[in-house]
Amino acid sequence: MKEKAKILDEEGINRAIMRISHEIIEKNKGAAGLCVVGIRNRGVYIAQRVAACIKKIEGGNVLTGALDITLYRDDLALASGQPLVRKTEIDFDINDKNLVLVDDVLYTGRTIRAALDALIDFGRPKSIQLAVLVDRGHRELPIRADFVGKNIPTSNKESVEVRLAEFDGRDEVLIAEKE
Amino acid sequence: MAWTKKDLLGLEYLTEDEITLILDTAESFKEVSTREIKKVPALRGKTAVNLFYEPSTRTRVSFEVAAKRLSADVINIASETSSVRKGETLIDTGKNIQALKADIIIMRHNCSGAANMLARSLDISVVNAGDGWHEHPTQALLDIFTLREKLGKIKGLNVAIVGDIAHSRVARSNIWGLTKLGANVILCAPKMLLPVGIELTGAKTSSNIDEVLKQADAVNVLRMQFERDEGAAFPEQLDYFKKFGITEERLAKAKKDIVVMHPGPINRGIEMSSNVADGANSVILEQVTNGIAVRMAVLFLVAQAKDARK
What we know:
- The structure holds 2 protein chains of 2 kinds.
- Chain A has helices at 10-28, 42-58, 110-120, 165-168; strands at residues 2-8, 34-39, 63-67, 98-106, 127-135, 147-151, 158-163, 172-177.
- Chain A is an alpha/beta fold.
- Chain A has one domain (2-74, 85-177): Rossmann fold (3-Layer(aba) Sandwich), CATH 3.40.50.2020.
- By secondary structure, chain B is α/β, with parallel strands linked by helices.
- Chain B has 2 domains: 11-135 and 291-309, Rossmann fold; 137-288, 3-Layer(aba) Sandwich (Rossmann fold), CATH 3.40.50.
- The chains are: A alpha/beta, B alpha/beta.
- The A-B interface holds A 68, 70-72, 76-79, 81-82, 84-89, 117-118, 121-123 and B 2-3, 24-25, 27-29, 31-32, 35-37, 39-42, 45, 70, 297, 300-301, 304-305, 307-310.
């Protein structure tokens, strides 16, 4: 993997998350009945940051959860290396909530398709909205994000690397060339 | 760390990392059984066959529940009602199940090594649900999983296994698993029920239950299989309870937080008193719940490994 360009630094990521949080509050007319669920791994940390931002702006409590979509993948039966099954932690009732699903990068849309299937097994939220830090295009399914930190046009040969302090020790978003 | 084995035959054949991977995966699967909709699509379109040559309810049902929570289709074959009665060999039965395009055979057999033989003869996955006196890997995995959950670790723990060690596949699998993960295993039984040479596995032996309980962080109490009574080797039931039965009086002298396990079904008043079985130290019903998560993890991993080979 060859690094090509840094798209966002720590401040850039913070600003994007702050803006997304404001947009979420605006669209939902406040934070009542709102919950934020991140997709493992990095989506979980972004979800926690978004929830903290919303709390700071609106006060009150915002429920957060973590979703592992491995068991819902559409390529599970294909020989694509063995994925590790991680924990799903949604310790609250999602019925009738406005649920914001959070991931780091939106690409083919297949992860989100799996996440939607997984969420429906937990109940029937009033709405599911999608927030991503980066939308890099190349959708293979009819899925779009409601809240986007940054749109980055990419080619399929490139990869988008999101690094977060909680998981990787530092905050940055890079474009790299696959070798 | 990726799982690459198409079968689960025994803990003797696994590395420490492989055992840990199963336990970690089971931890993730445990949550599924707490949902309102207790089902994930991971093994959708796969067929699991329960092939049981010995009567079993709890293990068979646990595997069936595990497979169904993964969305696999489950078929139960009991030897009493199958062609086995007409003289079909085990390998022929296995090849017929394979020809039905099943993906996993979960087998309980009275002969030690039966699962190993079947796994060698077939391309589909074989999961050993107990073979003779050899191994019962998923029972040991769920015991170890429960212990790890209760005490936070396995390494360095003193684990006592009490009862009929000689005839117990549960004991053998536990010895392999626990010693590989760094626990100290003490086997406690009347001398007649301690097989010669069992110390070679790294486990210690004793016939003094009170001494053993003093050091133990956990005690796994095996079922006395009186239905297999072969006469001389078996102690009288009441005599056994007096000398080896786990009672409140005995536990009072043990570590306060000692974990009491039993693979079930319990003979109350023989291996342990009712007060102990239902007491604060007992995790017997948690073992049953954890058994589903562990079996889900095993079925998922072997099915994935088999797919990866294609």
